[in-house]
Design goal:
The complex is a heterodimer of chains A (245) and B (441).
Chain A: E1 6-12, H1 22-34, E2 39-45, E3 58-61, H2 66-88, E4 92-96, H3 98-103, E5 106-109, E6 112-115, E7 123-138, E8 146-157, E9 165-169, E10 179-180, E11 182-184, E12 187-190, H4 201-216, H5 227-240
Parallel strand pairs in A: 1-2, 1-3, 3-4, 4-12, 5-7
Antiparallel strand pairs in A: 5-6, 7-8, 7-9, 9-10, 11-12
Chain B: H1 2-16, H2 23-33, H3 37-42, E1 49-53, H4 58-71, E2 76-78, H5 86-96, E3 107-111, H6 117-120, E4 128-131, H7 139-142, H8 145-157, E5 163-167, H9 171-180, E6 184-188, E7 215-222, E8 225-230, E9 242-243, E10 245-248, E11 253-257, E12 260-264, H10 270-284, H11 292-298, E13 305-311, E14 314-320, H12 324-335, E15 341-346, E16 373-379, H13 383-391, E17 398-399, H14 403-413, E18 417-422, H15 424-439
Helix pairs in contact in B: 1-2, 2-5, 4-10, 4-11, 8-9
The chains are: A alpha/beta (245), B alpha/beta (441).
Chain lengths: 245, 441
């Protein structure tokens, strides 16, 4: 039964949004499907390519430099409607760093305002200094702590939306609220790279399960040996938060 | 001069008592006692001051340049150890000076960390700047490449007469040199050596820094280095003044420039650029470089860049790999060796390494599958992350967080040909361990 299932991942603008090891998120989703006998493919969309959201089960929107984000945001307006329909139809999205900021209404920088996709009710403003460090969260979506790295000048305000997690170590959305990221329908927006998914296999499986549920109406995933993932995750947790998990 | 004396003492104390590279400390003390010491000593250099900047290849290029200048009979001040921030630069001058504060030097060849240029340039204006390349590196420390480029441009414009010797194959460096407006001399490789078009390597420079349009690449040597032209504006690879041709990378390296055959017993295609940069610098300053090949034959930097050790019958090659472009080139160099081998990868996340290790996922580790690697051991502070990185390209690895243990185990049970690839802060410790083991035979 599992062998017949297939997940198609759309990687948006990897030629521009490819900072902080986003390829690791793709590799993680692909491998964790394949190891379970689920067929997986990734389609890379570069700037100007036509995107057929109807084909896609998971969309990855990664991070880029402010300059590259500015180039992307102009193009994004052209796909806004189709992207929004995908999100409202419970399409799965993982948006990281710059991609997270692009989910919202706008990102106000000192140089000007980058218009976002307006898919989730949030906005970002450039703050004083960058928030750079390892980061650990506790998220309702998963049992294990979520471990990663953050590096952002923007402060993101999520207007009453559900955050991705509570900050145990690090800064999070705005450095003050104590929360990080956003979860809206099947969309996760987060500042966590590292990359996010390899050290947080439950988050990866959450995305895959949501995509299977939407496509096949059932989200059963066979267990994998995650001992190495758990060790890498625990190392970060122990070092920065300490105590027993 | 008190500052010089204090620097020398500090260096002796910290190197011999604390067994660490005391250079940075020496510079700090000298600057504390005499804030003008760097400006004062640099002004005593009789001829040219060369600086070397760029993401990768700084230390090798700079040491090679120093050796090439010495081969021309010059007395040279050089920060050999790669201490390349303000303190390290000040120390190089202070340690080369006499106790009376007199510096007897014809030239200086100094590598400078890109972010530190703005603190160093107010002290002296270099005559020549070698700009090797710009790759993504330690995003948590330096930020995005655009930030580094803006910073360098500002600094370069404070020395408008400084001649920039730039790698013309790198669209980012070439644009920066042009944008800053300094007089330029270019080096590069115009012929296609290997076809790197299909590699999945992450490349910078996909879009024109001048107008933002897509860049066209006729070919890539590696990373974004290659032959390029903007699809919209007039920005393209500049004419190359020092053009290497007839490149050979098997059995050492050799190439022809200015009708001279240059050869060296090194591995790694990237070393063609390092050698070419040093050659272009010496030639640009009007020297004949007649002893360049002899210099290369005797060049042994002993600084953990493809440095060999022989320990109880095992040949150990140590090499620094601190960012994706450097690591990918390291893997290529390892693959040039067809013999079976063991590999140890040491990854730390100390401040000088960059505390963000996500760059590991931008390295094409899957190429190790074709590298005749009998085993891969991961070590260092972030060995678990490294093990995971390999797991997701289906490469199993052994984990031993302690470097000395990992090396001992492979020397005992390995195949006699060991590569140790380390990032920045792991270099000094690993080198000390290997030196010690080599001495114990």
């Amino acid at each position: 039964m599992e062998g017949k299932r297939k997940i198609t991942i759309g990687h948006l603008y990897p030629d521009l949004l490819n900072l902080y090891g986003d390829r690791g998120n793709i590799a993680c989703m692909m491998q964790r499907c394949r190891w379970r006998g689920i067929e997986a493919e990734t389609i890379e969309y570069n700037l100007g390519d036509e995107i057929d959201f109807g084909r896609l089960d998971i969309v990855l929107l990664g991070g880029g430099s402010d300059r590259e984000q500015m180039i992307v945001c102009r193009k994004l307006q052209e796909i806004q409607e189709a992207f929004q329909a995908y999100v409202e139809d419970n399409g799965v999205v993982i948006a990281v760093c710059g991609g997270y900021q692009l989910l919202g209404k706008y990102y106000k920088t000192k140089e000007g305002v980058i218009q976002g996709l307006n898919l989730v009710d949030l906005y970002t403003e450039q703050g004083e200094g960058r928030l750079i460090d390892n980061i650990v969260l506790q998220s309702d979506l998963v049992k294990m702590p979520v471990a990663g790295f953050e590096n952002h000048g923007g402060r993101t305000y999520i207007n009453g939306n559900k955050p991705f997690g509570k900050v145990l170590y690090g800064s999070g959305n705005d450095g003050e609220s104590g929360y990080e990221g956003v979860v809206y329908k099947n969309v996760i927006g987060t500042y966590l790279h590292g990359p996010l998914l390899p050290k947080n296999p439950e988050v990866c499986d959450w995305l895959i399960a949501r995509a299977l549920e939407r496509k096949y109406g059932e989200s059963r995933l066979s267990p994998l040996d995650d001992s190495h993932e758990i060790e890498a995750n625990s190392y970060v947790y122990q070092r920065f938060v300490g105590g027993n998990q | 001069m008190l500052a010089v004396w204090a620097a020398k003492c500090a260096e002796k104390v910290s190197v011999h008592v604390f067994h660490r590279q005391g250079v940075t400390w020496a510079g700090k003390i000298a600057l504390r006692i005499c804030p003008d010491i760097l400006a004062e000593l640099a002004s005593q250099v009789r001829e040219d001051i060369f600086i070397v900047c760029g993401t990768n290849g700084k230390t090798t290029t700079n040491n090679m340049l120093c050796a090439a200048l010495e081969a021309e009979g010059k007395k040279v001040v050089c920060n050999h150890t790669g201490s390349n921030m303000l303190n390290g630069v000040a120390a190089a001058f202070a340690l080369a000076a006499g106790l009376g504060g007199n510096l007897d030097a014809d030239c200086a060849s100094i590598e400078i960390d890109e972010a530190s240029t703005k603190r160093v340039f107010p002290n002296f204006k270099p005559d020549y700047m070698v700009l090797t390349n710009l790759f993504r590196d330690q995003l948590d420390r330096y930020g995005e490449i655009d930030i580094t480029m803006n910073l360098l441009k500002e600094v370069m414009q404070t020395a408008p007469d400084m001649k920039v010797i730039v790698n013309g194959d790198d669209a980012l460096s070439a644009f920066l040199a042009m944008d800053a407006g300094n007089p330029c001399i270019t080096y590069g490789i115009s012929e296609k050596v290997v076809d790197d078009q299909d590699s999945h390597e992450i490349r910078e420079g996909r879009f024109c820094k001048k107008c933002g349009a897509l860049m066209h690449y006729y070919f890539y040597h590696y990373s974004q280095l290659g032959d390029y032209a903007c699809t919209a504006c007039d920005f393209k690879r500049p004419a190359i003044d020092f053009d290497a041709s007839g490149i050979q990378v098997e059995e050492g390296l050799s190439f022809t420039v200015e009708d001279r055959r240059i050869s060296a017993d090194y591995k790694g295609f990237y070393n063609v650029y390092n050698i070419l940069a040093a050659y272009a610098a010496v030639r640009s300053a009007g020297m004949k470089a007649e002893h360049f090949n002899e210099m290369l034959a005797g060049f042994n930097p002993e600084n953990g860049r493809m440095e060999e050790f022989h320990i109880r019958g095992t040949r150990v090659t140590l090499n620094l790999a601190k960012n994706p472009a450097g690591f990918n080139q390291n893997i290529s160099a390892v693959m040039q060796d067809n013999m079976p081998k063991d590999v140890i990868i040491v990854i730390n996340d100390n401040e000088q390494d960059g505390t963000d290790i996500s760059w590991l996922w931008d390295v094409d580790f899957d190429r190790f599958k074709d590298a005749e690697a009998n085993s891969i051991t991961v070590s260092g502070i972030r060995c678990q992350d490294m093990r995971l990185r390999l797991k997701y390209v289906d490469i199993p690895s052994m984990l031993e967080s302690d470097v000395a243990e990992a090396v001992s185990e492979r020397i005992q049970n390995g195949c006699g040909n060991l590569y140790v690839l380390v990032n920045y802060t792991a270099l000094f410790g690993t080198r000390t361990i290997l030196k010690k083991m080599e001495g114990q035979k």
